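User: I'm putting together a teaching handout on how multi-component assemblies are represented. Below are the sequence lines for each component of a complex, exactly as they appear in our records. Could you produce the 3D structure of the whole assembly as C-alpha cells, so the students can see both representations side by side? Please keep the chain order the same as the input.
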Amino acid sequence: MSNSILVHIGRFIVLILAQSLLLNNINFLGYLNPYIYIIFILLAPININRSLFLITSFFLGLCIDILGDSGGVHAAACLVATYVRPFILRTAFGLSYEFQTVKLSKLRFGERFMYVTLTVVVHHLVLFSLEVFNFMHILIILKKALFTSLFTILMTMLILVLFRKNDT
Amino acid sequence: MQQIINFLLRNKNFLLFIFLLLVAIGFTIQSHSYHRSKVISSTNFVSGGLYKWQHSIGKYFNLISVNERLLIENEYLRNQLTIATADTSSSKIIDTSTFATPYSYFRANVIRNDYQKRDNYILIDKGANDSIKIDMGVITDKGIVGIIEDTSANYARVISILNSNSRINAGLKNSDQYGSLLWDGKDPNMVQLATIPKQAIIKKGDTIITHGRSTIFPKGIGIGVISNYTMNQNNSYYLIEVKLFNDMTDIGYVYAIENHNAEEIKTLQTLDE
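Assistant: Of course. Below is the structure of the complete assembly, with chains in the same order as your input.
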C-alpha cells in the first residue's frame, strides 16, 4: 500500500518536472505543447478518496501554473477533469466501473482510448477557455483545444503503453 | 442545524470543488490584470532555481550564435563611439556636472521564454539584488522585449510585448505621431500598432521606434517595420501590422534600462493632474 502511494507521489513530481522543463518547450508548429501531466489524473486509483483527489489535482495544476506563469488556468482545468472523472469512467466502462472491477492496466485499447480522449478534451476545453479568457475568440479556443488535444492524446497513449509495467 | 450539517457533509466534494475552482479562477483573473499578478509567479526561489539550472545546461548549445550577435553589436557600438568622439573632441566642452546619462543598463540572461500562449512572460536571472526594479524597460541589441513586472531577490519576471496586458507607446521614426502597441495573439513575430491618427504619412517598410513619452523606454529604441496597414471602421486611425526586429522565440540575453529621472518626471505628472 505504502509502495503504491510512493509511486503516485513520484509520478506527481516526475510529471511536473517533465512538463515544465521539457514539454513546455516543444512548441510544435509554433504553439502546440502536449499537457501530459494529466496522466496523474488518469492513473489515480479508481477508489481514491474524492476530497483528497480534488485537493491533489488542484496542487498539481497550481505547480504547473507557477512554473508556467499562467495564473490559475491549469489548476481550474485539473479540478474540472478530476470532478467529472466518475462520469467519464461510467461512460467509458459502463457496468464494470459500477462494480469497481476496472483495472486501469488491463483495459482494451478502445476503452482506454475513450477514457483518455474524454478526459483530455474536457481538460483542454477548460484550459484554453480560461487561457484566452474571452468568448469572442471562441474559434481560437476551439482550434487550440482541438490540435492540442490530438497531440496530448497521442503522447499520453504512447506513454501509457511504454510505461505499462509501472501502472497500478 | 442538523439538516445544514447533513447537507454540507453530503455535498462536501461538490462544495470543495466549487471552492477550489473559485480560487483557481481568482488566480486567473488576477493574472489578467496588469501589475497584480503577484501570487502565482515563477520568480520564487524554487522555480527560479529550477529554470536557472535548466538554462545552465542549455546555454552551451547556442554559444556560437550568441557570440556572433555580441560581435555585431560591438561593431555597431564601436562605430557609434567613433562618430560621437569625432563630434565632441574638436569644439564642444563637456559639462561634467550633467555628463551622467539619465539611463543605466543592466545585463541579464533569459532563463525562460514563452511565446505560444495568449499572455506570455519571460523570466530573467537578475532580481532586486542586482538593482532590477519594477517598471524598468527590457530590450535586446535589436529592439524592445517588454517591461519588468515582478521581482524577487534573484529573479525578475518580464511582461513580454506578446501579452494582452502589454501597452507600450510607440511611434513612427520619421514623424512625431504615436500610438500604443498591442498583440492579437496570433504570430509571435508580428505586433499591432493602433491609434496612429490618419494624418500620419506612412508606407510599408517604415521603422517603428519607442516614442520616449513614458519613463520606461528612452526615445528611439527599435521595435520593427511596418509590414501592412489598414484604416479602422470610421477612417480616423490606422491599424498597423508591425514586423518585430527581435525574434521573440530566440532572445538569449537582454538589457534592463533604469531611468534615473523617472521619479522626478512622475512627480511632475501627478502634480499636473
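A couple of points students might notice: The domain at 38-273 of chain B is CATH 2.40.10.350 (Thrombin, subunit H). The helical segments of chain B are 2-10, 12-32, 45-58, 63-90, 262-272.
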